[in-house]
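Notes from the pairing session

We agreed to fold both candidates in a single pass and log them together. This is the raw record for the first candidate, unedited. Please don't reformat it; downstream parsing expects exactly this layout.

Candidate A
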Amino acid sequence: MALSTQQTRPEESHLDTTQFDFSQLVGHNLMLFSKQFPGRSLKSRVVLVSDREITIDRSGSSGLIDSLVNNQKVTIQVEYKGQQVAVPATLRRNATGACKIILGEKVVPLRRRRFTRVTMSCPVKLAAVPVATFNPQKLARLRWLETVTINVSPGGTLIDFTSRLESPTYLFMNISLKEFSFPSLVLGQVLYSLPGETGHFHVGIEFIVREMRQRRFPRITLKRLPPEVFEYNEAQRHKLNNNLAAWMQKTSQSWEQGVNND
């Protein structure tokens, strides 16, 4: 799987690995992509970091990490200070079978986020919508499916889904964000689907706010779509961004206080 074609933007510059302190990743998860397992992301955990060499847990992804062939080119994806980055690397196996990742010289920042993104599992109901031919009289006949979010931001969400959703599929979505004020119905567009570990897919979805509607759809299509899906607007998105940031800060402070009191 070519990670860069899925999640990076052409205009984003590469950064030198010398600018990063990867020792902060010890104990954290990473995803690994290799030609040995095309189209599949392998999950493992960082157990040791020395300069540009990362040792990962060989038992990750139900043992698939331990079956990786020595001296092959791989790409790892990690979260560094809240930003997802990808690093081309080489996998090396030593005499004891340990999996070591020799990092390349460049780090590729993935999509730069305009909004606060929170890891949060919330119930989701969704239905695929053929917007070009949508008939409002058939709204009740839409096939609604249920799943959960992996993370949420004012600009979109990442969901767990049982099958691949192709871009640019449009979705009617109801997301139960109990802690925050959020419309009961929004319109989302699938940006990408990445394979997970259990046969499911991680599907990235962008919310279409009111101000986007005329740029995305012809007038005849807008007349057919229910107006409720465009209640979500820029002002609400900005407010949700502030609320999520405040919630994250409060949660972090509560956690730190609990640790200090132990």
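Candidate B (folded immediately after A)
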Amino acid sequence: MNNGKLGPDPLVKIENLTKEFNNKIVIDNINLTIEKNTITALTGPNGAGKTTLLKIISGLIIPDRGKVELKTKTGLVYNSETSFYNQLTVKQNLVFWYKLYNRHNNKNIINEIIEKLELKEFTDIKFEVLSSGIKQKLSIARALLSEPGLLLIDELTRSVDFISSEKLHNLIVELNKEKNITVFFVSHNKEEIEKLSNKIVYIDKGRIIKEEIK
């Protein structure tokens, strides 16, 4: 375990992070660094605090104590179909989120992301009829709208078939290598973790119990 010590090129530094909900400690004095251009897996049992940690890093949840130092913008990929509009098409959903992010400096980014994620054939298809794999790709596309240096992913391939999982794995590696996007992802899939990650962080009961550098 690195106990929060700075690596060769840290992109994120987390110090003494603590969060409670209803008098229950969910994140318990965590210290962690995420190095630039790496793919780090976060794993542990249900209720260990994985999703809460992702949301704190992304800024969606404010910690009670401690701090998160970020040197880049973040993009959060989370499994919440209710955050998309069922009656809107793939492109319409992306345009909505683009405007919500108030992005005006790169108006070609939607088409660029659609091309990159191989979503072109689905642009005019409504969200409600998309497969789980395409919905997950759309979640990644939305996260990329902010042009992040850090991609935070909650359960990359949950409810996704084998072929779609392979495509998502290849996409993550490609974004990491070609776009220099650092990835921090939650997974319970041991094979996926071994295949993708440079580092594995194990969390239980809100505490990091081990870090494994590969």
